[in-house]
Amino acid sequence: MSKTDETKAPKSSAGGLEGVVAAETALSRVDGAAGRLIIAGRDLPDLAETLHFEGVTAALWSTTGKPWSADEARTALGKARVAAFENVPTLLEAAKGLTITEALRVGLGLLPDTHSTEPHVRLVAAMPVFVAALARAADGKAPVAPDAGRSHAEDYLRMLHGEEPAPDAIDAMDKYLVTVSDHGMNASTFTARVVASTAAEPVSSVLAALCALKGPLHGGAPGPVLDMLDDIGGTDNIEPWLREAVMAGDRLMGFGHRVYRVRDPRADVLGAAIKSLKGVEERTGFARQVEATAKAVLKELKPHRPLDTNVEFYTALLLEALAIPREAFTPTFAVGRVAGWTAHIMEQESTGRLIRPSARYVGALPDDLEVA
To answer: Is the pLDDT of residue 10 over 60?
Structure first.
């Protein structure tokens, strides 16, 4: 490369930016070696036991903006859900022929894309309203209007199913939303921060994050976990099916993680939440047998690879137990993760710094340039 070239080549590179620090954040810390997830300064198990989704959302927002209490967040989100419902008729008309995730992009596009008062409230509130209406429309049912007086988890289940949710279902959904609210610099969160760094409006940043989430390598694993359980069928077939799959080089859905080298802490929280649900004991018991056998088979056949249960395994079981349609799994994930997305957007905006990484050029060079 020419010595007079003012473009400085990056000193190092990593595939997928793995190990590269792209930002400083006070929102969450993922410790893959220890199997710990810290959100807003607290370990996930403690968070899930002591705060509802509104409380966690308030804690995330308070980290980067004005202080929020859980009650303030609940009131603001309730009012904003009601306001978001005004967009549902237009959304359902525009969403014909689209999947729920594809249509959800349309729904976000209907929101005013401005830096006006508290756009993060509007975004978090709109997500369950739009997902519930789209899921019901896919089943030929009319949308159910939100109730501002209910919790976020309760109202989502009520809007989705059109009936009063049971207390154990509300608690399980709430713990799910808390568990997936934030998770470090994952692909969709990084996408949101990149867009936010350009000074684009928050709706654009969240819409970009949703597009990243749509990719099967990031947000599409829970459904295939259930497909795997369905394919195995019965207890006698668990070990033969798993051995054949591993020997064939197939990936066991719900096991292994890009960051965690031990058990995903989110799996424990969701696994505990499932225990409180009634009527799903047989399915859950079968799944736990599959989990135990899969871990043993993986340890035997892939002893040098740390493959333990990840969040997708128990996400699939929990959402199935709550009668969430499989095609709504990824959008339901977004109902919780949008809390983290909006907090990261605010954090990124506070830096005023454009994210502009370098790339190492490996292509051909003109003859007049020296090769370094």
So the answer is: no
Helices (H), 183-278: 187-197, 202-214, 216-219, 222-232, 238-247, 265-275
Domains identified in the chain and CATH numbers: 24-218+328-351 (1.10.580.10), 222-321 (1.10.230.10)
What is residue 7's predicted lDDT score, i.e. its pLDDT? 42
Task: Give, for 31, the enclosing helix (H) or strand (E).
Answer: strand 28-31
**Where on the phi/psi map is residue 62: left (φ > 0), alpha (ψ -120 to 50), or beta?**
alpha
11 pLDDT band, cuts 50/70/90, is low
257 is catalytic: yes
Catalytic choice (54, 291, 312, 349): 312
Of the listed 52, 120, 257, 344, which one is catalytic?
Answer: 257
Instruction: Report the alpha-carbon distance of residue 353 to residue 249 in Å, rounded.
Output: 43
Over 50: is that where the pLDDT of 18 sits?
yes
Write the single-letter amino acid at 298: L
Is residue 312 annotated as part of the catalytic site, yes or no?
A: yes
* Helices and strands, counts by H and E, the chain: 17, 3
**53-73: pLDDT as tens digits:** 999 999 999 998 789 999 999
Here the tokens at position 251 are 């990936």
Distance CA 209, CA 154 (A): 25
